[in-house]
Amino acid sequence: MNPDSDSFSTTPSVGRLIQHLVSVAVLLATIFITFSPRLFLGDFGATILALLTPQPVSDVSGAATRQAIRIGIVSGHWSNSEDQGAVCEDGTTEAAVNYKIASLAAQMLEAQGYTVDLLQEFDSRLQGYRAAALVSIHNDSCVDQGPDASGYKVVAALGTHDRNLANRLVACLTDRYGRTTGLKFHPGSITRDMTEYHAFDEIDPATTAAIIETGFLYRDYQLLTTQPGLVAQGVVNGILCFLRNENVDLNFRP
Question: Is 100 part of a structural domain of the chain?
Answer without folding.
Answer: yes
